[in-house]
Amino acid sequence: MIFIAYGGILVDIFCARGIEAARANGGICMRGRRGLRLITALIVAVFAAAAGYGVSVLNGGSDGMSVHFIDVGQADAALVACEGHYMMIDGGNAADSDTVYSYLRKNGVDSLDAVICTHAHEDHVGGLSGALAFARTSAAYCSVTEGDSKAFDSFVAALDAQGIGITVPEPGDSFMLGSAEVEFLGPVEEYDDANNSSLVVKVSYGQTSFLFTGDAEYESETDILEAGFDVSADVLKVGHHGSDSSTSYRWLRAVDADYAVISVGKDNSYGHPSSEVLDRLADADVQVYRTDLQGDIVFASDGSELTVDTSAGEALKPTQRAALFGRFYVFMHSGRDVCPAFFLLGV
Ligand SMILES: [Zn+2]
C-alpha cells in the first residue's frame, strides 16, 4: 500500500470517488469534503506511523508525473517525478540542505536522472548539496560551471564525488525524464547579471506543462520571447520569488498559465512577492500558490489533467479585479498579437 502525505489525495484513495474521479473533476480544492479528508488523513497517518512506512512521491511509480515545490523559505527547490524518474530543479539555501535531504529520503528518491541549478545564487544552489548527499545523479545542468560562493563550490564538490561534471545547456536542448520532455528555453543571451542568466526550463508531460524560470527578469523574458520559443505552460514558477523585476505582462500573456507558484519566505526582507506582480497575476486570471502561505505545493499530472495539493492551507484565489478590466489590462500590456475582441472575450 502506498502512503501519501497530502490529505487531499489521501481522501481520494479511501473515499468512494477515487483519485481518478478527482482528476476528472479538475481535482483542485475539494473543499466540500474537508472534514472527511481530515479524518481519513489522521487514520492513515496513524496506520502509516505504526507500520513504519515513509511517504511516497505522488505518481513517482509506474505512471503520471508530479512536481513538488518544496517549501524552502526565501529560495527555490522543486522535485519532478515521472514514471519512476526524478529530477531536482534548484535546492534552496545551504541551510535547506537538511530539508531537501529529508524530502528525498522520506520519498525514497535515492537516484536522480538530473539536477538542474538554474543559477549560482545560494538560494538556488545551496541545498543541492543536501540532495546529492542522499541521491546519486546521472547529470547536472547549470548556467555556469564556476561560481564565487562556498555554496556553489559545495555543489561542484558533491558532483565531483559522483564523477559528474556540469553541462551548460544551449537553448533548445532537451532530454526525457520518463515520458516527460525537459527543454531548456533560456537564457538566449549572455548576461552579466546572474538572475537573468537563470536557466529557463519547460517540462511537458502529455498535454500538461510547467515553466521554471529561476530568477530570470524582464530582460531574459523578453529575449526568450523574441527568440520565438514557445513558453506556454499550465503552471508558471514565478520568476525571482515574485520580484517586480520579473513576470511582465507580455511574459504572462505568452505563458498563459492557469496556475502560478511563488516560492518565497514568510516576512522576507525583500518584500517579495511584490504587490505589482500579484496584481499582474490577478489581471491575467492566474490562480496563485505561495510556499510562504501553503508550504509544500504538489501538482500531479495524468497527462491531461492537473491536481494540486498543499501541505498547509488551501489555494489562494487571485486578487479579484473585474474580469473584463483585467483582460483589457493584460491586452494593453501584451504584444497585441491577437484580435482585441477575441482576447477580451477569452476566445
Ligand atoms: Zn532566488
Number of helices: 13
What is the CA-atom radius of gyration, in angstroms? 19 Å
User: How many separate structural domains?
Assistant: 2
Q: What is the C-level CATH assignment of the largest domain?
A: Alpha Beta
CATH superfamily caption of the largest domain:
Ribonuclease Z/Hydroxyacylglutathione hydrolase-like
What portion of residues is helical? 25-40%
The CATH architecture of the largest domain: 4-Layer Sandwich
Count the strands?
17
Q: Label the overall shape.
A: globular
Structural class by sheet pairing and helices = alpha/beta
Q: What integer is the average pLDDT? A: 81
Bound molecules: zinc ion
- Ends distance: 44 Å
SSE string, helices as H and strands as E: HHHEEEHEEHHEEHEEEEEHEHEHEHEEHH
What proportion strand?
15-25%
* CATH overall fold name of the largest domain: Metallo-beta-lactamase, Chain A
Low-confidence stretches: 1-56, 316-326, 334-347
Sequence of strands across the biggest β-sheet: 8-7-5-3-2-1-16-17
Main beta sheet, described? 8 strands, mixed
